[in-house]
């Protein structure tokens, strides 16, 4: 059995995640290689994509999303907002719609029945056909199409209560009923999803995509990444065509025959924004976040809540950026001493961050006082 070390796997993941030399490709290509870009914080998604591509700014990412429509914004793994390649949407819909619905821990008194979920999904699909609606407009239309029960304010939200039907919103996206629209001023909008023809082996295809980017990995780690039952993940692995290897002495899996690793160890300094796919998908956490990094850069064991400084493939600090007009103040808090060469690379990364965000940077090396993102 092939044995792989953390430095080998780290170098492999960096290369495949587009964090080696900047690529000359389209945004949709790099998002496909990342297995989606987390977009709960849209500026972070633009930065995640832009940093992996030479000469690309946030304007290029926005054009791919709202102009060329080679990207879509929708609910992806873990029910969180992601940018996904439009061409891969059938795979994502096929895979995520097959995940058993765990009701997300909602109390029985406010849960929706499977029949009610089906009604809500059908209503969303119907009312958004040829339309682009704000959440309030969509809510009125869904309640009108299903019944008053859908509008009951039972779902705890950030500043109050949401109507019952919104419990099924991520499921509707996973079934291909809608994607995000371009927006109406500051208001978020939703519209019909592109056509998603059936993909019979969608879960297996998603496993292969995930392992290509972030393998070796286990079904349990894949299940955590998707937020799915381990049994479902294990079944997807069984049909995906995978090969077992030893990763730091423990069994893990890659796509069959895909055991190549770079000759050189991981090298380079990178600034990764909130919820970058590389750290969210990267496991085991104790190898990616060694020593003090686990305490400083994880939030309750969760990755992505802090933007991180990556040095030679491991998390080695945190950072934060504050914008005022075109000025971008970037504070980096390293958790290790940086060499002169690494400091030069950090300067280059700061310049690149500012280029992607279309601003003028100023770097400060010191303590980051901003807490984790929710």
DSSP strand count: 16
Number of helices: 15
- The number of domains is 2
- Structural class of the helix and strand makeup? alpha+beta
Strand order, main sheet: write it out: 12-13-14-15-16
Q: Helicity, in percent? A: 25-40%
* N-C termini distance: 41 Å
Instruction: Tell me, rounded to a whole number, the average pLDDT.
Output: 95
Strand content: 15-25%
The dominant shape is globular
- Major sheet attributes: 5 strands, mixed
The radius of gyration computed from the alpha-carbon positions, rounded to a whole number of angstroms, is 21 Å
Poorly predicted runs are none
Structure write-up:
By secondary structure, the protein is of the alpha+beta class. It has 2 domains: 3-191, no CATH class; 269-365, Aminopeptidase (3-Layer(aba) Sandwich), CATH 3.40.630. Helices cover 38% and strands 20% of the residues. It has 15 helices and 16 strands. The chain has helices at 6-16, 27-34, 42-50, 58-67, 89-96, 114-127, 135-146, 169-174, 202-214, 219-226, 230-238, 277-281, 285-288, 292-297, 340-357, and strands at 3-4, 37-38, 71-75, 81-85, 132-134, 153-157, 160-163, 179-180, 189-191, 242-247, 250-255, 269-272, 308-311, 314-324, 327-334, 360-365. The strands form 5 sheets. It has a 5-stranded mixed beta sheet with strand order 12-13-14-15-16. It has a 3-stranded mixed beta sheet with strand order 1-10-11. A hairpin with a 2-residue loop joins strand 14 (314-324) and strand 15. Helix 5 (89-96) crosses helix 9, helix 6 packs across helix 7 (135-146) and helix 10 packs across helix 11. The longest helix has 18 residues, at 340-357. The chain is globular, with a radius of gyration of 21 Å. The relative contact order is 0.14. The mean pLDDT is 95.
């Amino acid at each position: 059995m092939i044995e792989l070390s953390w430095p080998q796997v780290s170098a492999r993941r960096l290369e495949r995640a587009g964090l080696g030399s900047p690529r000359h490709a389209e945004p949709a290509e790099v998002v496909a290689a990342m297995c989606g870009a987390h977009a709960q914080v849209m500026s972070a998604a633009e930065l995640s994509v832009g940093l992996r591509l030479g000469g690309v700014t946030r304007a290029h990412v926005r054009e791919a999303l709202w102009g060329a429509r080679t990207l879509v914004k929708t609910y992806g793994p873990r029910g969180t907002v992601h940018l996904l390649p439009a061409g891969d949407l059938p795979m994502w819909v096929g895979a995520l719609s097959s995940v058993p619905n765990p009701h997300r821990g909602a109390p029985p008194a406010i849960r929706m029945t499977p029949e009610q979920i089906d009604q809500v999904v059908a209503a969303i699909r119907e009312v958004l056909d040829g339309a682009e609606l704000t959440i309030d407009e969509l809510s009125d239309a869904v309640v009108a199409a299903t019944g008053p029960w859908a509008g009951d304010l039972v779902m705890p939200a950030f500043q109050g209560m949401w109507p019952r039907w919104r419990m099924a919103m991520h499921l509707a996206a996973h079934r291909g009923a809608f994607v995000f629209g371009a927006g109406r001023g500051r208001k978020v909008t939703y519209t019909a999803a592109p056509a998603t023809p059936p993909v019979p082996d969608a879960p297996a295809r998603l496993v292969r995509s995930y392992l290509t980017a972030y393998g070796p990995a286990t079904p349990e780690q894949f299940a955590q990444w998707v937020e799915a039952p381990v049994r479902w993940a294990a079944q997807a692995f069984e049909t995906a065509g995978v090969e077992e290897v030893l990763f730091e002495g423990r069994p893990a899996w890659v796509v069959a025959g895909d055991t190549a690793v770079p000759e050189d160890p991981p090298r380079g300094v990178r600034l990764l924004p909130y919820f970058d796919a590389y750290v969210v998908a990267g496991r085991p956490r104790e190898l990616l976040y060694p020593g003090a990094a686990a305490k400083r850069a994880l939030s309750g064991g969760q990755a992505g809540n802090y933007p991180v400084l990556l040095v030679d493939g491991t998390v080695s600090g945190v950072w934060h950026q504050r914008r005022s007009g075109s000025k971008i103040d970037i504070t980096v808090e390293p958790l290790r001493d940086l060499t002169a060469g690494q400091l030069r690379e950090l300067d280059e990364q700061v310049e690149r961050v500012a280029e992607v965000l279309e601003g003028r940077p100023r770097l400060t090396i010191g303590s980051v006082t901003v807490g984790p993102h929710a």
